[in-house]
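retry 2 of 3: previous attempt timed out while embedding 5,6-dihydroxy-NADP. Reduced batch size to 1 and resubmitted. Inputs unchanged:
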Amino acid sequence: MQNFDFYNPTRICFGEGQIAKLADLVPQDAKVLILLGGSSARRNGTLEEVKQALGERPQFEFDGIEPNPTYETLMKAVAFIKENDVDFLLAVGGGSVIDGTKFVAAAAHYDGEPWEILQTFGAKVMSAMPFGSVLTLPATGSEMNSGSVVTRKSLKAKLPFMSPHVFPQFSVLDPVKTYTLPKRQIANGVVDAFVHTTEQYLTYPVGAMVQDRYAESLLKTLIEVGPKALATPEDYNVRANLMWTATCALNGVIGAGVPHDWATHMIGHELTALHDIDHARTLAIVLPSLLRHTKAEKKAKLLQYAERVWDITEGDDDARIDAAIEKTQAFFESLEIGTHLSDYELDESHLDALVDQLETHGMVALGEHQKIDLDASRAILKGAL
Ligand code: NZQ
Ligand code: ZN
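retry 2 succeeded.
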């Protein structure tokens, strides 16, 4: 196992009715800005429940954080905070609202042009406003981690940043609040959590037995509850397991002391930035092709994955690895998520621009061995046509 330094200060309040706890979680004297996405939290009563729990505290609302939150919108929230002396932020929504709130929290304290936060991947963030979240979409793990991904529309750039200053102080996870999610978002959440797990598991062995078995249990849980979450939306236990699995997939525990890949995410971000494809769908396009491309480097873990996650024990090494990749792809397809670029009306003529974007963003040595250069990324995208 590799050395690690694990830190995660986020308090999780999990279960039906937990939104009421905001009454104690948010400081009594706080002047609160509630940050929201489109209209889902307003429509389904979540916002009303939040406001009731906040009681008499002065509170404002900031609407309109988009899926794939934009710098342009988020800077309006930063201006609002400064004008109104807001001192606590509360994100109510999915990963985009929480990611957006992290950026706003850091940008409000930042000396200089806040886009630098993304350009330096968070290294220059020295402090941030305190904030909490109420999660309504199980997928990203943003509710219990220190990462955020922000898009600058004018540059067609989607970049991540990380900082220990942007862990939420708390996150409320009420599975009932996910009942109103459209099927498309549930399917996206299953795939996003699945790929977060593989990015930290399908690399090379370092003898990290707990991290490996924990990752395998998350993958198996997703394979089991994913289809059920689509078929029976109001099954509390299914939604509870999906929600907690997605959180655990990216809260740092399975990633401590093991190598990380993240090439699928970085290539996927360019697909979203240029072609507006949902985050999880970009991962479903890239991952199967990336696994085929890196079969040799990932051989030991792919064989372990085949046996422990998909129960594949027959055939030679190559056949077992191929079968595991095929099962992975079929799983994504079973959730009605297309795994080819052609499913999104993209063809070979779109590859140059995607590779150029990777170069512009410095994504020239990706993966656990930093061996995925621009040629490899092109080959992976080509393999996904
Ligand atoms: O905007 P509203 O009206 O709220 O609707 C949202 C949005 O249209 C809707 N929704 C959310 N909760 C709902 C609901 N609809 C009905 N009922 C509810 N309970 O769902 C749509 C998608 O929401 P979004 O927040 O964009 O989805 P998700 O949680 O998948 O977040 C995706 C973003 O997270 C980033 C992605 O890149 C993408 O920008 N990621 C963040 C990560 C992190 N911070 O660690 C890691 C991930 O890899 C990911 O990159
Ligand atoms: Zn993701």
